[in-house]
Amino acid sequence: MISPHPNLSRQYLPLIMSGVVLAVGLLGCVMGIILTLLFAGGIDILSLWATSDRILTTLRSAGIQASLSAVLSVIIGFLGAYALYYRPHWPGQKLLLQLGFIAMILPTTVAALALTSLWGRTGIFRQSLEHLFGQDILFDAYGLEMVVLAHIFFNAPLVMRVALSCLQAIPQNQLKLASQLGFSRMVRFQVMEAPALLPLIPSLLGLIFLLCFSSFSLVLMLGGGPSVTTLEVAIYTSIRFEFDLPTAAILSVIQLICSAAVILVLSVMTSVNWTTHIRPTYQIIRTDSRLAQLLDGGVILALWAMFAAPVMMLVIRSDLAAGLDIIYNPDFWDAAFSSLYLGLSASIISVCLSLWLAAARYRLAQRRHISAFRHLISLSVSVYLVVPSIVLGTASFIWLRGWIDIFSSAFWLVLAANVAMGLPFASRILAGRYETLTARTDRLCQMLNISGLRRLWHVTLPGMHIELGLALGLTAALSFGDLGVITLFGSDSFRTLPLMLYQHSARYGAAEADILALVMLAMALLLYGGFTMLCRQLGRRS
Amino acid sequence: MMRVFLSHVAGLSGLLMASLGLASPALASDKPVLTVYTYDSFASEWGPGPAIEKNFEAICDCDLQFVGLDSSIGILGRLQLEGRSTEADIALGLDTNLTDVARKTGLFMPHEQTSSADALPVPFEDDVFMPFDWGYFAFVYDTSRMQMPPRSLDELISSDEPVKIAIQDPRTSTPGLGLLLWMKSVYGDEAAAKWAQLQPKILTVTKGWWDAYSLFLEGEADMVLSYTTSPAYHIIAEGKDNYAAAAFDEGHYAQIEVASIVSSTDVPDLAKSFMAFIHNDGFQSVIPTTNWMYPVTSSDLPDGFDGLVSPSTTLLFSAEEVAANQKRWIEEWRQASSQ
Predict the structure, then answer these.
(1) N or C terminus: which one in chain B shows less Cβ crowding within 10 Å?
(2) A68: how many CB neighbours lie within 10 A of its CB?
(3) Segments of chain B with pLDDT less than 70
(4) Is A24 in the B-facing interface, judged by CB distances under 8 Å?
């Protein structure tokens, strides 16, 4: 932690206090949710016992799926990073990294559709394999394997980025020494790369496990039945299908406990920063072994297949003529409008809150004896990881049901959930840069007597323009493409594009679903690209 | 620069909010509105919805609006979620398996009309629920792709053929619940074991009937749980005769679909006249060639309905039996499916 100049501490009291209040507010919401769930009518020992079997099967299913996803994502991500590390000069490497990032911005519903277009029953992989081998030897089109595949699609790119930046951090003199000593690839791996990557494994595994354990839309779309499920899907089905609120409440509490446990475990490990910029060029001693080249090439080709093929397949098989009908559907424009509006609002609010909390936390750091508040703020940002949106929706529903018409206030609930979802991402991107920037400019600003909002607008924000663009773009794309609370509260009067795609995609083969997916992809990219480029331009001009 | 950007954002947001407010519900019409919650395929443009709307609006001086929900049992679920503030006046699409469960929710009120349903497979009369069509569940397959379909439920479950079937979730879909009850009535206590045995053949469990049927049409599934009357659609509307229903020796489970008035309706008289309209020609004559089910009043059926499978045994639980056991049987299914 960079220690700021002590003379500046006193004037930031309002900021600190408001930040702490905000953090307490966020955490208070979580407590409120937990309490609402615990006291939801009808929970007693009997119902707990009755649902225990269901809880156990759900936990087992989610646990198996999340573990497989985490392990495989890490392995594939590491393999990819390793290959990229050694072949930075091959064409298209930068694009491959970007493509991986796009996999993260891609709405889950679009990804699910794209993956089934490739791996589904009538997908090209299965058809060609059937041709070759005469029968269907591939795994089931819906089920555990498909869900794990989808999770790898989303998480391996992140692992790849983190691992690559970690490998790039290996000091130059070590590389030179290794080449001087004539180390082979195997030895280099043993001595240099493995020790660099090893510390990452626990936190990466933990984070991806948590994400996959709480996965909702992918499991919903690709699970194929009650045997593949997560707590969130179980909560959704008990509300929407069975209208069994006590069970939903019990499941929500279990979800909270599991998430909190994993978060606590994660917080004591080294945190991973997956937004570090990958340096475009750097020196590395090339190894010329043919085998090595072949293996690296194989891995990179597999990565291309993994990340680029699904979307390309979607583009190829989309039937423009039939699918374009969706443009004439007024529901589409309603949903598009709602989604964009949600995305924009949620991202702006998330980023504002993140900055506010980051600022408060930074100023708190000066008062070294009140570190509890600092931890409070850090924790409040991760609210979403503990309380996934379905749980938030369940609690809101139980709490607000008697008072207001849930479906008409759906917009605000979805917005709140999306803001909560964006917070961990936005603050992780912004906090670090904010701290370094503020520390660097503190003295200068004091000398020039620039403070408060003026400082924010003229000094801090322009200095952070890249991170701001990234944070805004990422959170906008994420909440644009999110399928979560909307499944509970969506109705004919309020729909988002992901919900529409989910409803349409069930009619497989419908050209409209494909076109809808591509439109959503384009919009998500536009949001992300728009924000990043806008902020980059603005920053350049300042 | 940043200031300009932020002011633009503020202005744009303001504009968006204003238009959001303006985009609110259209101008109120002076005709009373009758809102009918039904399942998606009923309300779609190729379903019975449009014709029934036209026929009813011609006599009622009202505006009939169908709201298509993504599954049949979802109608009940949605009404439960919305509670008394629901806009729905009529719920159309539940079946006799659910009448007792639905009645106990207190969400429906008596329709006070006499039923003239005389073409039902088993007699059905209820003061709250009015039957509007019926059919038999059956597995539908493509004769050009499958030459030797299973001839009984037992054969489907225990054969070694790599058949892939698409079925529906009994918690959301009346056909799904129908299959559950079909298995239950054939196998009784052994049903759970039979479900476990069937698992490898299940391609996926979908939320609604149309989701599974479209999977079948796309070639993803070899057989789909649908109705004996589904092939009639392909014969009459598409001129294709390669789709057929598999006749099972044990008999087929029947489905009688019902409609009912939501108690919190603001147009009870209009709703009651719609209930009476259900047994009119204007409604019943539309059913065979749009919903592809049998009408409840005796009438002539189109030619395509001649060669359809006609089960010798009709299986059907009473509504009370289903109400008493539904939760337990569904839990049994869920456990067997999670193996």
Answers:
(1) C
(2) 18
(3) 1-29
(4) no
